[in-house]
Amino acid sequence: MAFYDLSKQERASLVETIAQELFLELKTKKEINTRLYFSDPDTYIRKAAYLSIGRIYFAHPTFQSTLIDLLNRLLRADDFKIRQTVINAAGDWKNKF
Question: What phi and psi, each to the nearest 5 degrees, are found at residue 42?
Answer without folding.
Answer: -85, 120
